[in-house]
Design brief:
Elements (H helix, E strand, L loop, with lengths): L4 E14 L2 E14 L3 E5 L6 H8 L7 E6 L2 E2 L5 H11 E5 L10 H11 L4 H14 L15 H13 L5 E5 L7 H18 L3 E4 L3 H4 L4 E6 L2 E7 L5 H14 L10
Parallel strand pairs: 3-8, 3-9, 6-7, 7-8
Antiparallel strand pairs: 1-2, 1-4, 4-5, 9-10
């Protein structure tokens, strides 16, 4: 059975600077992500992993190359159509939450639906479902400044998934969390992936966080250095393999699928 491709990137390059001072942050990357995959992106600081995520998620524009999400060439869309596509098809989880302080938890979560003119009853049905799944039913009427970092990140996650997006982008989602909150969030993402077949692309520097994914791309100097898949291994064994690959990132580049 053919797998449904959610994201396809061809010859993606991102260059910063001008003549005499050019930095290639992403260098001719090709990538496919299938529906239901949980893909991690790792690499040393400055490797280009966050730049790659920004380009794939439409936050930034590639210098050259083509990106399709749900078979739609996203950079051929007009700006207004791209904004609608981003709102309806993509979910975003950032390290710094990006919540609106003057809105309640509930208002932050339902904002994408309100902007899309979704009916009141549908909004209520969805907020009930996602708040229960993320364990935040009791704080829906609180404001972001009155809740913990873990609760803020779960609020941001609820906002990301309430639109039933084709693709969820997460940039260091556990970076500002304590270990308990990080474990809870990673468990939620894994559950969304396994039970609801959510497609997730996550940048992380943390091997433990990466071990929750099913496939990992290691980026070095803007290119794919290596790629591994979890397969039927335990998360502990996958974690150990991640550590081994990270230890070799200082050596020569190659692109292996394990």
């Amino acid at each position: 059975m053919n797998k449904e491709i959610v994201l396809e990137a061809v010859n993606i390059k991102k260059v910063f600077g001008s003549k005499g001072n050019i930095h290639t942050a992403v260098n001719d990357i090709e990538l496919q992500v299938n529906k239901g995959e949980f893909v991690g992106i790792m690499g040393p600081s400055g490797a280009g992993k966050s730049t790659l995520l920004n380009v794939l998620s439409t936050i930034d524009v590639p210098t050259t190359g083509e990106i399709k999400i749900d078979r739609q060439n996203i950079f051929k869309l007009k700006e207004e159509d791209l904004a609608d596509f981003r709102r309806d098809k993509l979910g975003f989880i950032f390290q710094d939450y990006n919540l609106i302080e003057t809105l309640t938890v509930k208002e932050n979560i339902i904002l994408p639906l309100s902007l899309a003119n979704v009916s009141y009853q549908e909004i209520e049905n969805r907020i009930k479902k996602v708040s229960k799944a993320l364990g935040i039913e009791g704080i829906l009427h609180a404001y972001p400044y009155n809740i913990s970092g873990g609760e803020q990140q779960r609020t941001a996650t609820a906002r990301a998934i309430i639109t039933n997006p084709s693709l969820i982008f997460a940039d260091e989602p556990t970076g500002a969390l304590d270990s308990k909150s990080a474990f809870m969030l990673l468990g939620i993402l894994a559950e969304l992936n396994e039970q609801q077949k959510a497609t997730i692309l996550m940048v992380t520097h943390d091997a433990y966080a990466a071990s929750f994914s099913s496939r990992i791309l290691f980026i070095k100097d803007g290119s794919i250095f290596s790629e591994i898949r979890k397969g039927d291994r335990s998360r502990k064994r996958f974690f150990e393999q991640i550590i081994d690959i990270l230890a070799t990132l200082g050596g020569g580049g190659h692109h292996d699928v394990i």
